Model the fold of this input.
Amino acid sequence: MVRAAMVSRFGGPEVFELVETPDPVPGAGEVLVGVEVIDTLWLETMVRSGAGQGFWPMRPPYVPGNGVAGRVVRVGAGVDQSLCGRRVVAHTGGEGGYADRVVVAVEAAVAVPDGVDLTVAAALLHDGVTALALFDTAKVGPRDGVLVIGASGGLGLLCVRLARARAAKVVAVARGAKLERVARLGPDALIDSARPDWVEQARAVFGEHGADVVLDNVGGALGEAGFTLTARAGRFSAHGMPSGRFASIDRRAADEREVSVTGIEAVQLSDRDRTRYVEQALREAAAGVIAPVIGQTFPLERAGAAHAVIEGRTAFGKTLITTGV
Done:
């Protein structure tokens, strides 16, 4: 039997129920993955609450989860039997990942290199892909100054690390008790967004030129304030919305300053590009170039607790669910 954390109805984290269902059988071109680690996303908490149904029309009961890591335990017709036992990460197609066994298309399963832990692989499945795609879209180069807004989340921390590796300067914006932990990644400057003068502090670091690239992982008023720090002919990415909405950027002001503004569409990738970025993220992890910060893990039966820390903004870094397999 398969154990799964099911959303029984829209509502708070308490709506999760642990259920058991018969083992799924992989069909032609599919593999059955024995899941060990499950990725979690802020978006999943929003959908579970019942918000955003115009964009994500999920209806309870359903099992959330679009990213898993584990081992192939069975293959369907037409799939190479040698894949059995292979460690993989995989996207599930949008749901069903909060379970200890999941069927996915063989093309969706990406081999995890030796030396890369499955928890690391799961943590990179979305955030690593998104960070790499954002850096490519923003064309981050070795002379750039990068401002990372919302630097304490899984994606934000990876952006800080990538900027350290690729850019001339990185300024991280976070808040409260999380600042000290972000500081361990060695940004050139660390600014508390809870302070009313945080924009002025950031402007003092970047100088009159401003930030060549601003990566907004939060959205709302915080992202809009960050936009004012973008250099002329700079790049602003308005992809984050944990605040409840994306940053609303005045296109006329952007055009006047020749600022290139991109949004969440920049990381809406084709299956082929997503797989390419997954492979790149795993290679860079194996080489020690990037590493996710895994702040907390929860067993499958406490999926609701994982959602609670994400929603309550008490999570630091990446939140993962483990199955105990």
